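PROTEIN DESIGN WORKSHEET
SECTION A - STRUCTURE
LENGTH: 85
TOKENS:
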């Protein structure tokens, strides 16, 4: 299901104001993809991304236990990945 035009506008405007150019990542246009350094993601999302090690595989994954979005953006976003998985 495609997002409403006002949702696309709200999210892309917020990202663009923060120097981020997202890429549409799904045919429906409901997923966006972009990469950020951890310090920029922490600032943008008011988060504390940290490396967690999966002991069985010795794989490090960067995640956060909490994040926040501006009120005018949060109503348009279902989730941020990777975050608290």
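SECTION B - SEQUENCE
RESIDUE ASSIGNMENT:
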């Amino acid at each position: 299901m495609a997002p409403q035009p006002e949702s696309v506008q709200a999210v892309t405007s917020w990202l663009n104001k923060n120097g981020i150019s997202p890429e549409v990542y799904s045919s429906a246009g409901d997923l966006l993809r972009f990469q950020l350094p951890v310090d920029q993601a922490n600032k943008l999302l008011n988060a504390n991304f940290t490396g967690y090690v999966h002991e069985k595989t010795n794989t490090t994954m960067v995640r956060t236990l909490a994040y926040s979005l501006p009120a005018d953006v949060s109503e348009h976003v279902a989730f941020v990945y990777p975050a608290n998985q």
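SECTION C - NOTES
The chain is about 30% helix and 15% strand.
The first helix runs from residue 5 to 17.
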